[in-house]
Amino acid sequence: MVSIGRLRQILGRDRHLSDSDLILLREQLYALANVAIDALAGMSADGGSEGGGNAANAAMPESHDANWPGPPLDGPGGLPE
Q1: pLDDT of residue 28
Q2: How many domains is the chain built from?
Q3: CA dihedral 27, 30, 35, 39 (to 10 degrees)
Q4: Which residues span the domain enclosing 27?
Q5: Nearest to residue 56, comparing CAs of 36, 37, 40?
């Protein structure tokens, strides 16, 4: 389990969260990670996507265009506005 001290290092000095806030955040992140792992494991057990590929690709909506480069990065620092 990630310690409170390590969470503070990861988040940086400009984040002023209480220990209880960090504990809640850690619990929520672990829960999210478990959901993602369970979902991917279930996809792998089902053979992944119908068209082949890995489980992560199986989670991609069929309408997704793999050749689309993504949104333009016109904002500050190259990030979308």
Answers
A1: 94
A2: 1
A3: 180
A4: 19-46
A5: 40
